[in-house]
Amino acid sequence: MASLQDPSFSAPVPDPEVLQALGLADPAKRRREKWIRLGILGGVLLALGFGGLRLWQARAQANKPVYKTMQIKRADIKVTVSASGTLEGQNTVEVGTEVSGKLTEVNVDFNDVVHVGQVLAVIDPEQSKATVDEATAQVASADAAIFQARATLVESKQKFERAKGQLKDGLIAQQDYEGLEANWARAQASLASSNASATLSRASLKSAKSRLEKTTILSPIDGVVLSRLVESGQTVTAGMTTPVLFKLAQDLRRMSLSVLIDEADIGRVREGQEASFTVDAFPERVFASTVLSLRNDPTITQNVVTYEAILSADNAELLLRPGMTAAATLTIETRAGVLALPNAALRFAPSNEAQAQLRLPGVPRGGRQSTAAGKKGPEVWVLTGEGPSPRGVRIGASDGAHTEISSGELKEGAAVIVDVEEKK
Fold it and tell me: Could you write out the DSSP letters of every residue in 121-147?
């Protein structure tokens, strides 16, 4: 056998079919396949990296807040005071009685139109008529007593005058003369007493006639019957308090609204100011009104002091009814054509974390200190390229929804942030 070191020795040639089976047939081909595999792996890694970047950007965009904005516009701002109260008919009258007795007639009912002097009801007049007859007789008796006293006075005077001459001639005793003088004085007193009794009797007759007249209940005004509190046949008793039989309103086309104004607002309310009100019966309807008067008498309820204000209420359509509860709004000041800022902008402030990301002055990187701690006055936020940015403003009158900007950096048309949209 030839040795490997033998010069004549030659290495065996591999079988091509074996090399083909082992994939070693072509070294150049193996190198190409290696580079292809590396290229595919690099492409996969590149794709994964690009996808991860896009995912990170998407998540960052999703976490970025979306702010709602509104523009600053010129508008009229009305400063108002709110109050609630009850509607009443103007010149509402409670009709009662000063005499006691049984009602024999009740001539009106709810919502009836009545006129001055119209008979509303009648109380049994029998007892009052008897009292009038008695007083009339007393007057006649007193007049007769006056005539008798006058006759007695004339007689006693004549006797006294004759006694004077008889006394001078010595025809009458001094004692008899003095008796005649005393009779004349008593006659004068008797006439005075009769006159006084006659005056008293006439007063009693006048009172009796008045009570008789009061058994007929008359309407004191032209108006409408709001309520009838009695029935025919019912007995009423006039004692310490006058019983109320009817309640009348002069004209329901003109009503009044009584509202209570808080003591903190009463200083800004004036007579003649415009007002409006709504009622539950017509929630979509706003009724115009005017402040008619302010009462000085305070009302104290649970240590809360209020003052009554009377407002007018036009009821030409007869939609409103006495006793309805109304919510009134009194306009105490009007600012025309001023820069109006939505009140929501004054309430808005970015979260502490968002302020920390903006690196605002006075806010540490941890985002735990609000810029409100360093504010010198009201501020609002506007959107810039870097995100929300605060702007200081000086505010004026407010109507509850908008506030006047009296000075500051913002101009008409500027967009201010009012809220952050919720992520779905």
Answer: EEE--HHHHHHHHHHHHHHHHHHHHHH
User: Are the C-beta atoms of residues 312 and 289 closer than 8 Å to each other?
Assistant: yes
pLDDT for 373 beyond 60: no
Contacts of range 384-390, beta carbons closer than 8 Å, 24 or more positions apart:
386/358, 387/354, 387/357, 387/358, 388/67, 388/350, 388/354, 388/358, 388/417, 389/358, 390/360
Least confident stretch, 167-181, 200-214, 289-303: 167-181
Provide the number of structural domains found in the chain.
3
The rounded distance, in Å, linking the Cα atoms of 1 and 12 is 14
- List pLDDT tens digits, range 80-116: 899 999 999 888 899 999 999 999 999 999 999 999 9
- The answer to whether position 261 is within a domain reads no
Q: Is the whole-model pTM more than 0.85? A: no
* Domain end residue (candidates: 159, 182, 214): 214
Establish if 49 belongs to a structural domain.
Answer: yes
Last residue of a domain, one of 146, 181, 214: 214
CA distance 309 to 138: 54
CA-nearest of 341, 414, 344, 420 to 382 is 414
Question: Has residue 155 been placed in a domain?
Answer: yes
403 and 367 in a common domain? yes
Instruction: Provide the residue range defining the domain that includes 46.
Output: 31-62
pLDDT in tens, 281-307: 999 999 999 999 999 999 998 899 999
* Whether residue 71 sits in one domain with residue 137: no
